[in-house]
Amino acid sequence: MRSALMGLLWLGATPVMANVWPELALQSEHPVEGMRGGNLSGLALCQGEMWAVSDRDDDQIYRLVQRTDQWQVEALSIDVPPAPESGLPWGVRMMGKAISPLRGGDLDFEGITCDDAGNRYVVSEAHAAVLQIPHMGAPAWLKIDPALVRQARASGMLLHFNALFEGIAVNPQGNQIWLAAERERRGLLTIRKKQSVWDCESGCVLMSEGGLEQPPPQLKVKAQQKDFADLTLFEGKLFTLERMAYRICRRTPDTGEIERCWSFASDALTDARRYNTGYGNAEALSLDAKGAWIGIDNGNHARADGEKRPVVLRFTAPQGGWSAKS
């Protein structure tokens, strides 16, 4: 049994089946009403409040207010300065600029996180940049060493349009950030704050991997590229949302190595909750001691039961909590 488990933990080329890990149990689901652009792409629990971003909206983020089973949004308008140069090549930047009128936004916000001081941080996939939204004051882009993008690309990440940074997490002190590169290749990177600049210190890249992942059998599709859809830090560990595999994985913050995973496929892929798409829809992740919040980006598609709004699913924490070893 031990040797079999170690085989599952190995980050090699062999696809890992999405249904070999324990299943999380669905506790509740919450349609999100009032998100202007739809396309829920990030969640963060900040000082007891749930915040969200949409990859269609450049000028506002959202606070989610629970009203019975439905969540209503309260929009916070933000005045975003021009995005900085991050070192992305011309071709990738031009593809993003060309698609922005169709997508509805130039920045493509894909993740949100917050520190203990109440600062919120939003990652722009289109620009490979991080916007800080303080509790008081004007938003500002972080000054990030261009070595972040250079090292990521040297490791095979950030090479393709719309496959850039997809998730972000910050430590409680607000001086270290982790970023998740989405796919082809996916990976985890980190930067640390040194005075006014965020740099790579001894290296930005924690892990980088490619290869195929076999989606849950309910999807009835062939193996897909391994991906990350979101990232969160909880109790000193990184947790990745792995969209095509329909699972959450706990990883070490220093190396990104998998410690433990949990599947949410059984309840997320019931007949009523299915979308007529051949890909995963889970885009946003936030954890607390009692469970996980997983945001579904429906991409303007209706579920089989007719629900057309973004939905947040609440899953109960595993027995023994998120730090459990079995």
TrEMBL record:
Transmembrane segments: none annotated. Residues 38-185 form the Phytase-like domain. Keywords: Signal. InterPro entries: Phytase-like_dom. Pfam families: Phytase-like. Coiled coil: none annotated. Residues 1-18 form the signal peptide. This is Esterase-like activity of phytase. It comes from Pseudomonas deceptionensis.
